[in-house]
Write the structure tokens for this entry.
Amino acid sequence: MITYREMRESDIPALLDMIWKMWAGPKVKAKPGVAIHYADMVLYYELIHATKAFVSDDGGKAVGVCVIDIKDGHPMNEDYLFKMAKAVAKMAKDPDGLDNLKHSTNVNRVFNESEEVLEGKGYGAEVALFINDEEHRGQGVGSGMFNYMARYLKKNGVKKFYLHSDECSYHQFYGVHRGMDQIDSRPSNGSLGPVDNVELYIYADDVEDQIQD
Ligand SMILES: CC(C)(COP(=O)(O)OP(=O)(O)OC[C@H]1O[C@@H](n2cnc3c(N)ncnc32)[C@H](O)[C@@H]1OP(=O)(O)O)[C@@H](O)C(=O)NCCC(=O)NCCS
């Protein structure tokens, strides 16, 4: 049975495994010793500003994660900055890691620029990371997590939220399945996984619209 709960430090290895399999570039994927640093970098980059991280739990094992950043909330743990810096330094030691790092930096720069469309519109939270492992996709686990996350946002006074996605991820989940609005779409000069010049999106919605009975 799937349940939803707060992330624990002991969940992190399972989450890292999901992250590199999904988003690392092909050359880094072929080098597990580098891919793990890529996953560290992605997870800790998001956790630095995170207010909360929830996991989907199947029999005690984390099978998915949802990281939330409430804009005027308190960061969970400032040690994550140090962990991310260490991961970046380790990636940079490998030529394929360094190349992947450059692509990630380009993607993140365009992600940040695209937030201009949000300015002054009262978005109180971002869903910063959302992924399930491959065996737990398309079975309702992500929808359950979205509902759980939206209830948490509502309880904390957040009315509108947004998230970044991209053409190499399952972004249809947000637009087609959750009815969110795609409020921005723009190309980047970076790659994610095997997709070069990946197209980046912002989806947004009212928290209330994501709460189901
Ligand atoms: C996005 C994600 C977290 C959604 O979680 P999920 O548990 O798969 O979602 P659900 O099972 O609740 O899916 C809801 C709907 O999407 C469909 N769906 C989900 N993933 C799918 C996929 N990869 N391919 C096709 N359909 C998919 C489901 O069939 C379901 O459709 P229905 O409501 O018509 O039956 C998950 O698919 C995932 O981890 N994808 C890879 C990582 C990713 O792309 N994350 C988003 C990055 S911003």
About this structure: Residues 95-114 form the longest helix (20 residues). The longest strand covers residues 61-70. Residues 22, 130-132, 137-143, 165, 169-170, 173, 177 surround coenzyme A (CB under 6 Å). The mean pLDDT is 95.
